[in-house]
Amino acid sequence: MAISAYILLNLITPKLQDTLAAIRAIDEVKSCDGVTGPYDAVAFVEAEDINALGKVVTTKISSVEAVAKTLTCVAVK
């Protein structure tokens, strides 16, 4: 069953647009925008299941150099 989630991102970079572009380039990321507030960006991700979602966050999104911290919020439909 497919799963969707919002990933809240803390970034450590003055080059926000470059970092957002790198995150948007990940296949499972459907959108990623800079935001105001305690987080710097929010990505919307779709994955096959919870295990695939975990791998996207831990191996793909977290590997983007400027990503310091993530918080995953699974969408409830």
**End-to-end distance:** 13 Å
By CATH's scheme, which homologous superfamily applies? Lrp/AsnC effector binding domain/regulation of amino acid metabolism (RAM) domain
Highest-level CATH class: Alpha Beta
- What about the largest sheet? 4 strands, antiparallel
Compute the number of helices: 2
Bin the helical content.
Answer: 25-40%
The domain tally reads 1
What's the Cα radius of gyration?
12 Å
Architecture blueprint of SSEs:
Blueprint lengths: L2 E9 L4 H9 L4 E6 L6 E7 L2 H12 L5 E8 L3
Antiparallel strand pairs: 1-3, 1-4, 2-3
Describe the structure.
There is one protein chain. With 77 residues, the protein is α+β, with helices and mostly antiparallel strands. It has a single domain, classed as Lrp/AsnC effector binding domain/regulation of amino acid metabolism (RAM) domain (Alpha-Beta Plaits, 2-Layer Sandwich), CATH 3.30.70. Helix content is 27%, strand content 39%. It is built from two helices and four strands, in the order E-H-E-E-H-E. It has helices at residues 16-24, 50-61, and strands at residues 3-11, 29-34, 41-47, 67-74. The chain has a four-stranded antiparallel beta sheet with strand order 2-3-1-4. A hairpin with a 6-residue loop joins strand 2 (29-34) and strand 3. It starts with a strand and ends with a strand. The mean pLDDT is 96.
Protein traits:
77 residues; alpha+beta; Alpha-Beta Plaits; four-stranded antiparallel sheet
